[in-house]
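Hi L.,

You mentioned the student needs an example of a multi-chain input paired with its predicted structure. This one should do, with 729 residues in total across all chains.
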Amino acid sequence: MSNYNLTHLKELEAEAIYIIREVAAQFENPVLLFSGGKDSIVCFHLARKAFFPGKVPFPLMHVDTGHNFPETIEYRDAAMAKTGTKLIVASVQDSIDQGRVVEEKGFNASRNKLQTTTLLDAIESNKFDCAMGGARRDEEKARAKERFFSHRDEFGQWDPKNQRPELWNIFNGKKEMGEHFRVFPISNWTEMDVWQYILAEKIEIPSIYFSHTRKCFVRDGIIMGKADFVNTKDTEEVKDMVVRFRTIGDATCTGAVASTASTLEEIIEEVASTRITERGGRSDDKRSEAAMEDRKKEGYF
Amino acid sequence: MTNETKNTEHNSYLNMDLLRFTTAGSVDDGKSTLIGRLLYDSKSIFTDQMEAIEAASEKKGEERVNLALLTDGLRAEREQGITIDVAYRYFATPKRKFIIADTPGHIQYTRNMITGASTANLAIILVDARYGIVEQTCRHSFIASMLGIPHIVYCINKMDLVDFSKEKYEEIKESLEDFSSKLETKDVRFIPMSALLGDNVVNRSENMDWYEGSTLLHTLENVHIASDHNHIDCRFPVQNVIRPQSTEYPDYRGFAGRVAGGVFKKGDEIVALPSGFTSKIAAIDTMDGELEEAFAPMSVTIRLEDEIDISRGDMIARVNNKPESTQDVEAMVCWLSDTPMVPNGKYHIKHTTKDARCIIKKVNYKLDINTLHRLEDDNNIGMNDIARLTFRTTSPIHIDKYHRNRITGSFILVDEATNNTVAACMVI
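Structure written out for the whole complex:
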């Protein structure tokens, strides 16, 4: 009987495909959140596998802070063109222009938190009843408590103390009008699983994940990429550094790591030996001990 | 590192399998500490996580680094020093990847233990060496067994507080053996440990040289899980129908789903339920190409030789090995909602990919889970109660006994007014 045993990556893949198919069956108007980061790229790849040889039966949506790494946008547009997938861009700049949110000020100003309003507005105006995302439970402690199918009330809020029990592989996506779900198909994957899967499946990823030379500066021990929309203090020296990114978020709060890893194999070796979590370079999580939990309750990804 | 060793390392990652386990125990049995210890001693904790809990321990005035803080994710949990919700943790050794469902010990959150236990291969149940078997030990053991978890490991924890006494351990082990002989789970193991000091978690205990068994991690790495899935009875609940209607695939019609049991092979004769029409498997498709066979828990798309009517909620099985198709179902039920069960009430039912409605016809008995006595005249089923119920469904569902197949043998009840999941049900 032992031949009938799946490896753990194959089992995780089967689980994620099952969940994506459940979303397509249980919701009328789902959307896949797509940032151009590796986790959402893996989700998109899994969605293509789930419906092959059919097309992915839902659009993708990018919540665009306007503070992007150019490589990410290039990758995003190329991937959409290649697969013929519909992409919706929800812009934080529009939310600012419409007075829905106010831009943060100061040196650590970031549009990361503002994304929540843009996301919730876009879900409402497009009448999405389910937003799938590439969040993983190993990323952050509040995420470790998230269900696969996570219910949101009419204000888009998450109530962590009152989550629906989730049993076996039966997912309850029933809801009232105006409510929606967040669904996380790769909840059970770790950073290492994602990298190993990208390698095994030969999935293309944006170039900024690989080592390159970039204008950077160091703030609070974190290497930040320099861009026009990032303010630097007089004491912060901008210089060329050899770096790569472990996560791709808003460019104002996503740190780089000094690295010469230029192939997937080298990245995997680096991930295996590293002693800092990937969100360790995310200054948005460092705002307080419960920073992620508070943002999630309000409706963050 | 040479290329050759790099390749073997990469291959070993691709050959690892997956063990899902759950941890249960009463409040203060040291569950969170045990998980913290497993992660810490297996070097799965990163320096920034360690720094964060060092700072938090210091702020709370604790004398040593509190490993339990690693798993308490929500603010209320950290404030009250308890675990409220199931938290999932991940770690890997070169042999296996592990998913831990860390479930709370409080009575009011027992429904979360059921959530964590429903997909687990193995349950760790913690017992405080000072107190031995308590009410929660029985409750958790019974739940683990009822949920069909194939392996139970009792960790007799806090041995440091009973002077690492072999007699104390043997006494508790004996009473656990006596109790667990009544359970369905046949693979039951015992380990004396101190999660706080790390004895017998990852490293062998020097304080308990009288113990000759495996450490916990060694047990987790080596327990046999290949036969935990049913590879005998072919069951394929249909999730979606794939019809691209594209120029490349104008007539393609495939049935997408996840194999719930057995092994499906190209050419196999199958029957579709509820229609009863038969056909043969023309192909098993994936984006990576056609497969010769598919088995649980693979997600595939099956194409048939004949055009027969199949849609979501239907099930593909073998002509000579079908599930029972019935509208009358008997099941062990754990009530999960703080709104009590309504006798003769109507509920929405979700079974594999099929939705139906049902009425609760009869409460056969309620179970006193501490004594396992049957209370025959008690119809009041509330949160955390376990009862044997009889249901009538609006349309036939295709079921197996839960102990034969955890996927086709399970269903949930959904309250039609609130949409909440209110009960976990296991077919008898």
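You could point out the following to them. The first strand of chain B starts at residue 17 and ends at 24. DSSP finds eight helices and 21 strands in chain B.

Best wishes,
N.
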